[in-house]
Amino acid sequence: MNVWVINGPNLNMLGRREPEIYGRESLEDINREIIAYGEKLGLNVTCFQSNYEGELVEKIQQAAGNADCVILNPAAYSHYSIAIRDAVAAVDLPVIEVHLSNIAAREEFRHRSVVAPVAYGQISGFGKHGYFLALEAAKMLGAGKEEEHAAAD
Ligand code: DQA
After folding, report:
1. How much of the chain, in percent, has pLDDT values that exceed 90?
2. Of 80, 99, 111, 131, which residue is the catalytic one?
């Protein structure tokens, strides 16, 4: 099962950026842990980050046909990017939205995610562990698919 982990703007600054909110580990460190955790679960994980909305849209589009599941932290774009929301809606793939911080407990402008209604589900507030939980969810979704296949055979 191929899982793409896509991170949006400013997440390349993790470790240096508001560490009291986002933690002290760099994205490279977290990605390494995500890939290792994925391996344990038997998932083939690819990580990508961009600060550009269009690049994120293209990556989500490319996931169709290349990935079985997407784990997406759209960062600030979560709150206003209709383009990213539409890309998520356009691909016939489960997209799991992740936020390091609990967006519901922060400034009001972060409470709403325009991506959430088209995501499979959302994990928010568990720091980097949110990505590991999302991998567990991806694994669960993959297992569900295998069961469907077995039932159809
Ligand atoms: C974030 C929350 C967003 O509101 C913020 O703009 C981010 C990171 C998170 O992971 O907690 O950049 O998506």
Report:
1. 92
2. 99
